[in-house]
Design a protein that fits this description.
This protein has 107 residues and is an alpha+beta fold. The chain has helices spanning 24-34, 36-45, 53-60, 74-85; strands at residues 49-52, 92-94, 98-101. The chain contains 4 helices and 3 strands. A hairpin with a 3-residue loop joins strand 2 (92-94) and strand 3 (98-101). The longest helix has 12 residues, at 74-85. The protein is elongated. The model has no long low-confidence stretch (mean pLDDT 86).
């Protein structure tokens, strides 16, 4: 499969297919049925940003002294980078294939 899959969900604004008619309760029902509302809720409450270990390592390992980075140790290198640069370990979480980051509130 392609590395980035995009799913398009078509939401009908009304059941009669009438132009310029919007039924909010019907739209919310469709969003709930597709799982969009739950996905947004989870993202807002948890770790909405995620990077694969390879992507993160290739982008950010240059920020750490090269002696601390070991070839072929992608996950360990990501741990080294994050522990060196991010003081609060609650800001990220390691998964099986990705690193998850909490959203920063906008002041």
């Amino acid at each position: 499969p392609p590395p980035f899959l995009t799913f398009i969900r078509c939401i009908k604004p009304n059941d009669d297919k009438e132009p310029f008619e919007f039924v909010p309760t019907r739209v919310v029902q469709q969003l709930r049925a597709c799982g969009v509302i739950e996905t947004v809720r989870i993202s807002a409450a948890g770790y909405p940003s995620r990077w694969s270990y390879k992507e993160f390592e290739s982008r950010y390992s240059v920020l750490v002294h090269s002696k601390r980075i070991r070839k072929g140790e992608t996950v360990d290198n990501c741990r080294v980078v994050l522990s060196s640069l991010v003081n609060d370990p609650d800001k990220y979480q390691f998964g099986k294939t990705k690193i998850f980051f909490r959203a920063e509130p906008v002041s």
